[in-house]
């Protein structure tokens, strides 16, 4: 059913809600009792697209009344000319102040006609011609407001008539700045007619702030500084009169940025300015001078002023505490925002315009010392230059620029409404204001969201973007201590740089400075990008346990990957990669060693999901698939080692960054090892020709339990079976040849962590044959098997080779490892005796039993032997105990009532802690080790990997000892029966 209010005969269908709208339409001749009159559909459609159709129609009605008999001319133009229609209805629907202006000066609508864009060259002639008028101030105000209306009309027209050209924010801000300069020019000319002896001085007006940068708002103070020669008294009167004229006619002229601010002289000579800036100026004054631009008055004097102050601007970053001063100033500005308005204040609040401007200016002031391409006044242009130079990532520069332009556009629209200086975003509940602002900004309802909702979402997105990038760029960089570019171009002395590095926590700042100099040497793009990256990286490394080692590793990685085209581009464009890389390099010696040989993993640091990887149970599948495509044996094994290196590094990175669980780490490492072994075995078998035996590889120990760590060997046994009429001796000889070749290939010297295939758990240990037939194993275990071998078989599972043969092997050993009736008291005593001997004989001399992760008190061996004793005694009756996993075996023992829930949790906690700590030692030191460090940076790094603050390493050791001491108490009761 049709809504009567939206019917073709109702003004409501054009967005008009004012009860008077029908009368206004009739008075304009656009409506009768049947609806729209002929030829006005384009007008009403455009009216509906206006930011506020009711306001626009009211403005039309006021213009009609003011024009009287001249109304038909405007009526015809609105019906026929989309340029007039778009510009006028956009202005009337956006600004009550400009609507008032047009109502008071109705013939000014003609200035909105024509397709030519606004010509800034016409501003000065249009305004200066008022000088000879009877009331030049009044005439200047009128002409200024007319030109402002013309700029606004071109700025807004595309909102109403989408086919009309869109004028970018930068162009609008430039036009507004040019108009302000023209107004200053006219005001100075008026002042010259009012100040006696004006020709006895030279006066230059220097635009500062937004006017200096050509990024002025619709309503803004115009910041200036005056410099004079000759009679400074006359110059002062001239400057003061200029300010009065411009203030009454156009805008407030603010000279508070002059030396000593409002307490200082309004006008100074060039020497006076130079003396002040060299001796007394504060940091913020040099920041303000970034945007200084001579605009009016004596051009030669203005240029000399620039030549004096510009060198001082580009050495300001050498000042003591320069960066903290700028940062503190931004915090003070933010603190002036009224409580409750922090999220709505477009200019000063969090995520506001000042966040962008301060960040850009700080980066300019620091890096612009050595790069003249950064010496740009406009914020958006400077940001683009920072992106081109590598000082800001391309994506960050683009996001920052888009967000800044969006917020400035909102600011422009808000100020246009009443031509008042405001920066306050509408309150969330003010639907009407939000809808108007959205439409005035060119946003439309979409995806079921209203214009107000679309605006709110976009505003929050952009404000959050600005705040994130501001904090990233403004607070992180070490911008003074180690500048960009080479040593000879550094503005800071070596001593100052060393002091700053030392303050950050670098214990060898001289060495750190040498690394920095090596990385930034020369004028290449690579050196420039390194110069932009290093401040962030140095700051990040300072938060790690070993900043010096991290920086050395970064230099080694950078030099190794110097010819990798995407390396620095990735670091520059992906902020998360730099953060994560710093955390990795400052904590681990394993990661940088692997990184230079598997640099592709760096890309994964930008993508958490990719870094964490797939299901750990399937992590080896791509490796098997890739290796199977290689027919050459050497290439196949090389590919297997390469893919293992990639996965090892990926897992290590995810682990160090706290993204992977212990199960994910252990299962991934185990399955990668299995895939390497399986792929290598398949490759050797293919290369060996006609097979004489089936071969199965049985995983033992941690590999069998999927509990492998970074430094673990691969414990295996090999079983074979003759095929195609071969004898057992031929089968064993063939299998031995294959297995030996696999072991030799995998254990070949390499810079990667060792691929050690350990078969010592086979029958008779190292003295026994490397490979046996299935029947040989059966006979051995039946006649000669020892208790320790039954215990070792508890973790056996098929991992490679012939699955069917492996399954028969497992079925054959089940009665051996899960003995019917369990263990008698003598066998249990023997297990305990062996364990005690291992503790006494295998713990390295000098090792601390309280911190040895494998053989120490409450460590891995204690927990694992306890679980294995329970399995040997009860697995025949409790099927759930038949698992190679220590954690699952412990859980099954608890569920079967063999250990209490409290004891099981103590053992599980200790095993998990010891496993993680053992892995952390390898990650930190880059080589296998079971002993926790107890002092120094290695301890701090291990503690950090374990989730403790680097300065809280002592607490980590204490917590480790507490957990393992509790576990040892459980072991004494459950394992030893004490």
TrEMBL record:
Residues 486-978 are annotated as: Adenylyl transferase. It catalyses: [glutamine synthetase]-O(4)-(5'-adenylyl)-L-tyrosine + phosphate = [glutamine synthetase]-L-tyrosine + ADP; [glutamine synthetase]-L-tyrosine + ATP = [glutamine synthetase]-O(4)-(5'-adenylyl)-L-tyrosine + diphosphate. Residues 20-33 have a biased composition (Basic and acidic residues). Residues 1-11 have a biased composition (Polar residues). CDD domains: NT_GlnE_GlnD_like. Residues 89-307, 579-810 form the Glutamate-ammonia ligase adenylyltransferase repeated domain. Signal peptide: none annotated. Its cofactor is Mg(2+). Keywords: ATP-binding, Ligase, Magnesium, Multifunctional enzyme, Nucleotide-binding, Nucleotidyltransferase, Transferase. Residues 329-474, 834-974 form the PII-uridylyltransferase/Glutamine-synthetase adenylyltransferase domain. Residues 1-478 are annotated as: Adenylyl removase. Residues 1-33 are annotated as: Disordered. It comes from the Bacteria. GO terms for biological process: regulation of glutamine family amino acid metabolic process. Involved in the regulation of glutamine synthetase GlnA, a key enzyme in the process to assimilate ammonia. When cellular nitrogen levels are high, the C-terminal adenylyl transferase (AT) inactivates GlnA by covalent transfer of an adenylyl group from ATP to specific tyrosine residue of GlnA, thus reducing its activity. Conversely, when nitrogen levels are low, the N-terminal adenylyl removase (AR) activates GlnA by removing the adenylyl group by phosphorolysis, increasing its activity. This is Bifunctional glutamine synthetase adenylyltransferase/adenylyl-removing enzyme. It comes from Actinosynnema mirum (strain ATCC 29888 / DSM 43827 / JCM 3225 / NBRC 14064 / NCIMB 13271 / NRRL B-12336 / IMRU 3971 / 101). The lineage of its organism: Bacteria, Bacillati, Actinomycetota, Actinomycetes, Pseudonocardiales. The gene is glnE.
